[in-house]
Write a structure and sequence with these properties.
Two copies of one chain form a homodimer.
Chain A: E1 8-11, E2 15-20, E3 25-31, H1 33-41, E4 47-53, H2 59-68, E5 71-77, E6 84-90, E7 95-102, H3 115-118, E8 122-125, H4 130-139, E9 145-149, H5 152-157, H6 159-168, E10 171-175, H7 176-183, H8 188-197, E11 202-206, E12 212-216, E13 219-223, H9 237-252, H10 257-274, H11 281-285, H12 288-302
Parallel strand pairs in A: 1-4, 1-8, 2-6, 4-5, 8-9, 9-10, 10-11
Antiparallel strand pairs in A: 2-3, 6-7, 11-12, 12-13
């Protein structure tokens, strides 16, 4: 591997979002699962992004990826508008309501990996339809560690493909409600064990402000979330968490209980930054000292 | 201090409960905040219990305290019936509905501490009315570390007395919803800081299955809950947590960031046992090896 080889391929949605919170509003800001995940991962590793945008996707957005050092060989630019989403956070940010969704060029998205991405040792598959996720998995050559996100929509509408994805991935991530929904089991530990039996070596349950739990075949890791005093926009927190996790794992170069725990901790830390501002604003003003300082603070908060 | 000196005074309600869960039901079982707290604390220290029961409180109940080694000099037996509560857990245990409450002898409860309790170095004030909590605080001689629980009812109906209690206690514990309600602040970190400014050196926010957060003036400790696969009856989990915490703190003999963190860990562990059976059944069949084994397992689950 040379210095510029892609270590992490990130595949998912790219969107132009309009986000309203109880205190503020931003129009036409960069969003989408792969935007958050790629920029977060790029803090730790060489990242290649696979996604689709329209001709309305100006340099203002492209520059965010470029400045983060994200490789864009896998970015497709199609005639038409970029995927657009608008939503509003209510009830002090703990409830999100979608106002509008326009799929636009994302409707016919077919993820195609550049050759250099096919041998990446780490892969993050954001929350796109399971058949597209399978299409990506089929393009990977050699041994890859794959982290896959999913959502209630696919559990309801594409379970067969989702089951096939779950069989093939190394780590499945979903939130606690989705884990219950996918397995029909209310106890989260039993639900995680059921999912582990279906294929993945690791199941990562996200619980938002309450942290996350990593279930592996012979290990359980409980992680509280870094406490956030100034929550501005929760959009993309889960994707940022997953992206930083896979990036940190790629930086460590191996997958062990220890490297996984450290990577999840970095996922938590980077996600704690991203929600302090809209879109990716906070991620692109970070520096590694701030990351390490908060990581150290966090470690002090969880030791007995 | 001699070997038999009371190290922890526990004051609160004692009840005879009828509890129904989606799978099972138990009639006339021992309950009440001080029952759970005292028996939990007694795993670690010499505990004296202050409470009131009626003449229906048979040896079947008394023996649970006695076998746990709880001192009963502070237990008042009054003509009449013991406090009775019945409730049902719905929605897979995450929703509790009260079916009936009969205050009985608890209605005129006036906690009076035996002389030997007044010099106890640690005190747990369970969730009784703030004026009774003040009455207990006024009886304590010398330097005591007090842990005080409260609830939404007192926040709504007895705020002035509650404010006075909060001013005087060392550690206030309440759940996240109550913290928001008491302060009017939705961000839990800001809410905790507001409460710290009102007097206590420590505020412990309980989040049920999501763990707890200890906020001290210069320290924050995030604790995930031990993951429970076989939840049978959540009644008393919070009081067990608080009781084991104060007991473990008393055993350590000092209050520092380190001893507090360890004590909270033991609170978490003992609470994880109590919910595995109805009433105090699981607590009285435990042994210290099981406690230490789970504590060790838990520590492995939270280390990075």
């Amino acid at each position: 591997m040379t210095e510029n080889d892609i270590q992490v391929a990130v595949v998912g949605s790219i969107g132009i979002d309009t986000v309203e919170t109880p205190k503020d509003k931003r129009v036409d800001i960069l969003g989408g699962s792969s935007s958050f995940a790629a920029v977060a991962a790029a803090w730790f590793a060489n990242v290649g992004l696979v996604g689709v945008v329209g001709t309305d996707f100006t340099d203002q957005y492209m520059d965010i990826y470029r400045n983060a050092g994200v490789d864009l060989a896998g970015l497709q630019v199609k005639e038409g508008q970029t995927f657009r989403w608008s939503g509003v956070y209510e009830n002090n940010m703990n409830k999100r309501r979608t106002l509008s969704t326009e799929l636009n060029v994302f409707q016919s998205f077919m993820p195609e990996l550049p050759e250099a991405y096919k041998t990446a040792p780490f892969l993050f598959l954001g929350n796109i339809s399971p058949d597209l996720q399978l299409h990506v998995l089929n393009q990977m050559n050699g041994s890859v560690f794959s982290l896959v996100d999913t959502m209630d929509l696919w559990i309801n509408t594409a379970r067969k493909d989702l089951d096939e994805v779950v069989k093939r991935v190394d780590m499945l991530t979903l939130n606690d409600a989705e884990a219950r929904q996918y397995t029909g089991e209310d106890n989260i530990i039993k639900a995680a064990k059921m999912m582990l039996e279906r294929g993945p070596a690791h199941v990562l349950i996200k619980k938002g402000e309450h942290g996350s739990i990593l279930f592996s075949k012979e290990d359980t890791f409980l992680m509280s979330a870094f406490p956030i005093e100034s929550l501005v926009d929760p959009t993309g927190a889960g994707d940022t968490f997953a992206g930083a996790l896979i990036g940190a794992l790629a930086r460590s170069g191996s997958v062990s209980h220890e490297t996984l725990r450290e990577a999840i901790m970095y996922g938590n830390i980077i996600a704690s930054f991203v929600v302090e501002d809209f879109s990716l604003n906070r991620l692109i003003t970070l520096d590694m000292d701030q990351i390490e300082e908060r990581a150290s603070l966090f470690c002090d908060m969880i030791c007995i």
